[in-house]
Amino acid sequence: MPVIAVIGAQWGDEGKGKVVDLLAEKARVVVRFSGGDNAGHTIVNPWGEFGLHLVPSGIFSPNAVCIIGNGVVINPSVLIDEIDQLNQHGVDTTRLFISDRAHLIMPYHVMLDGLEEEARGGKALGTTRKGIGPAFADKVARLGIRAGDLLDEEALLERLRYILDYKNIILTKVYGVSPLSLDEVYSQYCQYGERLAPYIRETTIMVEEALNRDELVLLEGAQGALLDPDFGTYPYTTSSSPLAGGGCLGAGISPTRISSILA
Does the keyword Transferase apply (predicted)? Predict the structure, then answer.
C-alpha cells in the first residue's frame, strides 16, 4: 500500500484536516510530521467539534494508529489538554503514540519567542509566540529536550540544569527578566512525563512495520508550502518543512516510500 502525503499548497488553512479525516478511514497509520501547536485542524463529526493542534486528525478513525512524529515540537500542556478533550467525548486515544525523538517546547522557549518578537519592533515576524521557533532552534543547536527524556527523571534533571543555566543568562542579562526556577520547571515536566509516558515510544518502527505489511500510511502536513523555510516567503515562514520531503524526515521513512502527494 502507498504512503500518501497531505500538504498545504499555500500558507495553510487549505482543508488538510478534512482530507486526512476522510482518508484515515482506510489508513492504518496517520503521522503528523512537522510544526507544533502553532497550526491546527478543525474537525466536525458525530463526537463534536474539535480543534486539533498536535493530535493527528486520524484519531477519529477506529482502525488508525496515530503518531506525533519526531519532526514535531510538542507543548506537553497543550497535548494533554487535547487528549483530555478527546477522552471526554469518548474518542479512543489508546491508538495515539508520541515519537521519543520529538522535541519539547519548554517555558523558556515561550518566553524567548515573545521577547524576541517584541525586540524586533516594526520588523516583527508575526510569530504565534508559542515557542515553536526557539524550540526548533534548540533542536538544531543540540540544546533540546526530547519526549524520551521524560522517561528518565534523573537524566532529565541533569540535562535541564545545564540548559536552564544557559537560558537564564539570556533571560536575565539580555532581556532583563526574572530567571526560571529549575525546581519548578523540573517538577512540572516530571508530571508531564508521568502523564505522557504510556504514549511515548520509538515510532519509526511502527511506521516501517505497517509499510512492510502493505498497509496505507498517511503523512498529515501542517501549514503550507509557502511557509517552508527554504522555499517559502522567507523570512515570513515557519521553522520546519511542511513539504512532503519534510514528511520523510518527520516520520522517519525513505523518500521512495511516498507514492502520492495531495496538495
Answer: no
Clarify whether 165 is annotated catalytic. Answer: no
Q: Could you report the per-residue pLDDT of 40-90, keeping only the tens digit for each?
A: 777 788 888 888 999 998 999 999 999 999 999 999 999 999 999 999 999
Which pTM does this prediction carry? 0.93
CATH number among 3.20.20.100, 3.30.230.10, 3.40.440.10, 3.60.40.10, domain 3-102+199-262? 3.40.440.10
CB 41 within 8 A of CB 57: yes
- CA distance to 133, 169, 201, 212, 236, per residue, from 137 (Å): 6, 17, 24, 34, 16
pLDDT in tens, 168-225: 999 999 999 999 999 999 999 999 999 999 999 999 999 999 999 999 999 998 889 9
Q: What radius of gyration, in Å, describes the C-alpha atoms of the chain?
A: 18
Q: May I ask the CATH class of domain 105-196?
A: mainly alpha
Of these residues, 37, 41, 138, 228, which one is catalytic?
41
Domain(s) of CATH 3.40.440.10: residues in the chain:
3-102+199-262
Catalytic residue among 13, 81, 89, 100: 13
92 is catalytic: no
Give the Cα-Cα-Cα angle 224, 217, 246 (nearest 5 degrees): 35
* SS3 assignment, position 235: coil
Looking at residue 232, its amino acid is: G
Angle, to 10 degrees, between the axis of helix 182-196 and the axis of helix 153-169?
140
Domain span(s) for CATH 1.10.300.10 in the chain: 105-196
C-alpha cell at 81: 489538554
DSSP, res 146: B
